[in-house]
Amino acid sequence: MAPRSRRPERRQEPLSRERIVTAAVELLDTVGERGLTFRALAEHLATGPGAIYWHITGKAELLGAATDAVVAAAVTAEPTGTADSPEDTVRAVALGLLDATEAHPWLATQLATQLSRTPWGTVAPRIFESLGRQVQAMGVPEAHWFTATSALMHYILGAAGQNAVNSASAASAGSSGRHVDRDEFLGTVSTAWEGLDPDEYPFTRAVADQVRGHDDREQFLAGISLVLAGIAALHRPAR
Questions:
Q1: pLDDT tens digit sequence for 48-84
Q2: pTM of the complete model
Q3: Do residues 66 and 41 make contact, with C-beta atoms less than 8 angstroms apart?
Q4: Do the Cβ atoms of 77 and 51 come closer than 8 Å?
Q5: Of 97, 153, 204, 237, which sits with the fewest C-beta atoms within 10 Å of its C-beta?
Q6: What is the distance between the alpha carbons of residues 49 and 59, in angstroms, rounded to a whole number?
Q7: Which DSSP string do the residues of 190-217 spell out, in sequence order?
Q8: Strand boundaries in the chain, DSSP class E
Q9: Residue pair 103/25 in contact by the 8 Å Cβ criterion
Q10: Can you tell me the distance from the alpha carbon of 93 to that of 89, in angstroms, rounded to the nearest whole number?
Q11: What are the backbone angles phi and psi of residue 140, rounded to the nearest 5°?
Q12: Residues 6+ apart with CB under 8 A from 86
């Protein structure tokens, strides 16, 4: 009697929306937005596209869910050290988003897309809530909550997005076989600024040397401190 062939083992973990979103993030990190298709996702999950459509209706929803998942992890970062002030928490959230855009090259573009096209979704409220609670805890009067929180959010996402673009440009240049040295690049910028017309660009020439060797992370945190100081100075509670 011929032995029966063994049936393929079933997946131990059932397919869920969470598994699909996790797989989508992995694909986005490796092949980018263009490479994220339902066919590629189905192969990655060892399932059929129809099973995925049961949980996700289309690519737009998938990108939104992937963005929200990464943002949710980023904004729950804990402050470093023993201090636990609202300002420290703002810095922790800011660094979480900065690190997330660095770790996920596609995130900066998706953040801009989600915030401009679907601000009523989950991404914008999640970031706004994480910062707004700290603005509230700082004692800012309620009439100024929206303005103060918006200022923080715009600075954080703008600076993090620019940093992601810089990293992507360096990676693209490196993949083409051209070595990119950050200090050398900053030195080139600094030298170019120093050579500008002194009558037309006196300020830019004056700060040109500060471009050399600056630390992006320290500069990012210094900007956060400036925004927080401005919020405290302009919107401290009325006595």
A1: 888 999 999 999 999 999 999 999 999 986 666 555 7
A2: 0.83
A3: no
A4: no
A5: 237
A6: 12
A7: HHHHHTS-TTT-HHHHHHHHHHTT--HH
A8: none
A9: no
A10: 6
A11: -70, 135
A12: 134, 135, 137, 138
**Listed residue (59, 91, 62) closest to 78, CA to CA:** 91
Residue closest to 123 by CA, chosen among 74, 194, 176 = 74
C-beta neighbour count of 74 within 10 angstroms: 25
Beta-carbon neighbour count of residue 186 at 10 Å? 14
Cα separation of 40 and 37, whole Å? 5
CB 40 within 8 A of CB 118: no
Query: Tokens at residue 212, please?
Result: 């050399």
Q: In this structure, what token pair is assigned to residue 171?
A: 């990676």
Give 181-187's long-range contacts (Cβ < 8 A, gap of 24+).
Answer: 183/212, 183/213, 186/211, 186/212, 186/213, 186/214, 187/212
**Closest alpha carbon to 111 in 121, 125, 124:** 124
Q: Residue 22 is which amino acid?
A: T
User: Given the structure tokens 């011929």, which residue do they identify?
Assistant: 2
CB neighbour list of residue 154: distance below 8 Å, 6 or more residues apart = none
Residue 236 has pLDDT above 90, yes or no: no
pLDDT digits (tens, 9 = 90+) for 200-223: 999 999 999 998 888 889 999 999
Residues with Cβ within 8 Å of 231's Cβ and at least 6 positions away in sequence, in order, are 135, 138, 140, 148, 151, 152
